[in-house]
Amino acid sequence: MVKIPQFKNVKVQEWVDKWVKICNPDAVVVIKGTKQEHNLLCGQMVKTGQFIKLNQKLRPGCYLARSHASDVARVENRTFICSEKEIDAGPTNYWREPSAMKKELLKKFKGCMKGRTMYVIPFAMGPIGNHITQYGIEITDSAYVVVNMNIMTRTGTAVMKHLDTGIDFVPCIHSVGAPLKKGQKDVAWPCAKSINDKYIVQFPEDREIWSFGSGYGGNALLGKKCFALRIASKLGRDNGWMAEHMLVLTFTSPAKKQYHITAAFPSACGKTNLAMMLPKLPGWKLQTIGDDIAWLKPGEDGRLYAINPENGFFGVAPGTSMGTNPNALLACRKNTIFTNVVLTPDGDVWWEGMGKDAPETGIDWQGNVCYCCVDNKHYMGPKPGMTKAEIKKSGYVAAHKNSRFTAPAVNCPVLDKDGFEGLYKGKPTGVPVDAIIFGGRRPSTIPLVNEAKSWTHGVFMGSAAGSEITAAVISDKIGQVRRDPMAMLPFFGYNVADYFQHWLEMERTSVNPKKLPKIYFVNWFRKNEKDEFMWPGFGDNSRVLKWICDRIDGKVKANATAIGNLPKIADISLENNTGKGIVNPKFLKEILKVDVKGWKKEIDTVEASYDEYDMKASKDSKIVNADAKRVPAALRKLLAELKADLGKVK
Ligand code: SAT
Ligand code: MN
């Protein structure tokens, strides 16, 4: 039996004792969170072939990892919410009875760390000591997870000291599910190869996370989606706050007035791009607080205050360039881990849409040689001499579509340092939120920006959100539109309808509902019949943010329509509309009007989603459950009103 470290926090001790016995690791290491320890682990992984050290002149402190082909994104059909009652998981989640699931998983975990080291990672979600911050312990047998957690969360001794005081935490257990026999050589990316051996399991009532078989992203970095969204959404519901799939930013006007805005878009729909966007509008400044998750808590004044619980960015690499998101690219210059991108001959990285000529040859995400395309240097092919058309037709990409960079937040040149530390006017309150934005990738129907008529209407808008499925999840339906309420579809820790109700409750329980943020819905992705985007996006999105600020300040009027308040075209500033990808004023009318035909179809699908939420107790429940009827009446009412209003327009 290995030597088990001693902890002051009794619950930590019990958690570690229990899993050492079950997993049977060769050694147990408690993570201190020092630079030295981090570098040592990276160095060890270079030796075992799990990491490739990049050119330290070009990318100091940076490494590349290549995952197994079966382990490249989140696995939604292996993600379970194990509440006591099936109905509490709800129709968007896979559910298993908790004790049965634990029994099944214990068999998997038995002896799963043989031949490996067990790491115990104390971590904080949020600035240590902030009143919104929560704590966790992740046990893992993956050094890759440790170094990524070091970037994505605050880890180590400072957190453990906090836990020593006996405060509560969320216990997490993770294993790649690949024990090693004596003398067996490890592989570059250990994981359970079969999808059915992967389990991402949340126990919302016990507040525990058990993850087995995957080493990738949100499946394995348990502070992220599993804790900060699934478990935290439940914590938030029970305690009157909110855990949301939202970026947080600070937008400052030329007159130096600050606005704090959060925005919820599904995975790989541009949250990182908006979170650190370079505004096209002169005089406006944008700073980043977070790019993926926001925790929002009501303050004593009735406003909602936000923190970013994370400590880094786990951003999608392809498409990130000095043109689209210079601040993200600059954030990856040092101390960054790249996963599944291309390795160049000079020890640097490359991906599709990097805005940089591809090298003559490289090593693709699967470890094979790839070659620069002959007629377009922004592509690489699996064979020499291929044209762009041939490469596109083959479907080949040299960097995986969900390849990622894990970069420390402090690397971001436009980080709002105070906001990131949860400070506002020097106090650890989090930042007061002025506007909440929902959005998705929608080629048709949904206008550029639409303002909710009230808080309840904003909740309705969020509940009705939809988006094209992206490569952030393993799916054969990429590109198809699915309902993705509040961009939380894969992340609800409880019944989606109860989640809607919780949003509605935030207004009812607020000490000053008038001070709640205004709510908006945006869509940067409208296309015309020629399949061209009708809005340039990126830095031009500052024009939409400015309109939102103008509305907050009551500076401009809007067109009240059936679907919400739409901007008057003249109020979308076209100042500095020069350079690449400019706004075409011709399209503005089209993307700022109510597409009645499209909306009629849209609300039918929203209604169908509500009906499904009302019928099913969990995602794969076979029984139509009459008790499941939980969609709030207030939302059904708005849906009926919208239907009636659109019916009146011929
Ligand atoms: O869940 S991940 O962190 O792997 C990425 C995402 O879906 O946003
Ligand atoms: Mn995300």
Low-confidence stretches: none
Ligand identities: sulfoacetic acid, manganese (II) ion
User: What's the gyration radius in Å?
Assistant: 24 Å
Biggest sheet details? 8 strands, mixed
Helix/strand/pairing class, anyone?
alpha+beta
Describe the structure in your own words.
- The protein is of the alpha+beta class and 650 residues long.
- Helices cover 27% and strands 20% of the residues.
- Strands 1, 4, 5, 6, 7, 8, 9 and 10 form an 8-stranded mixed sheet that branches. Strands 14-12-13-26-30-27 form a 6-stranded mixed sheet, sandwiched between helices. Strands 2-3-18-24-17 form a 5-stranded mixed sheet.
- A hairpin with a 5-residue loop joins strand 15 and strand 16.
- Helix 2 packs antiparallel against helix 4 (143-152) and helix 16 (596-615) runs antiparallel to helix 17 (633-648).
- The relative contact order is 0.12.
- Bound molecules: sulfoacetic acid and manganese (II) ion (MN).
- Sulfoacetic acid binds next to helix 6 and helix 7.
